[in-house]
Please model this.
Amino acid sequence: MSLASTFGGARLFNADWQSVESEIGTFDHLITDPPYENHMHVAKAGSRGIRTDGHASPQALDFDSIEGQRDDITRLGSLASGWFMAFCTPEGVAPWRDSIEAAGMRYKRCLFWCKPDSAPQMNGQGPAMAVECYVAAWAGRGHSVWNGGGGRNWTVCPCQPRSRDGRHPTEKPLALMSDIITKFTQPGDTILDPCMGSGTTGVAALRLGRKFIGAERDADYYSIAVERIEAASMEPVDLFAAPGRRVKPQTLQMDVEVAQ
Model:
């Protein structure tokens, strides 16, 4: 049995998700930040640019790229009764869409995380990336449902808030994941993240009254996720983030110190 930790509304596995798939059970949504596409690993693994705005420089990536794993993750996502969402590079949107449609889900749209404090292009030879993409697909029956009304497909959120844990090289901001969960899920829903990393999605899920299942094969990252998610399980649920209401703007912009 690979199940290592259960507390509150969370079940966490220290294992590759494929080795514990039979233990995952049912879930409503798959929301994940999987490894980047191969070109990012090739370009970034040996040399990560040094930030000049006072924030910590990105760490080298110490995990494999998404290539060879994408179809397996979309197959898992097709078992959801609601949304499938995965972060990717702009170059990865088309391969993800192809994989999503091959798995029988309905691809909906590429969405954007806008980063007001993103790292500049260090060599000055072109513009820096100011957004990160994530794809959204509907795995459920009938019409897709979300809480965003006619809202547009982006969230503005700093990537280096003071509250950032910082022990994982591609950690997503808590405010970003909270906004996504508030828009696309309902209280009581179960969210699966097969590439859990340091557990930010799980922290957001429990704080917002959702249940969470996560898998992470790296023992160090898993320990961080357990620490963070267990702490979140002991916090009160955010009753203000109700269905149909977006996370408060001050939360989306929390603790940001954007270099002027």
About this structure: Helices lie at 21-24, 38-44, 70-77, 93-102, 174-184, 200-207, 219-233, 249-252. The CA atoms of residues 150 and 221 lie 37 Å apart.
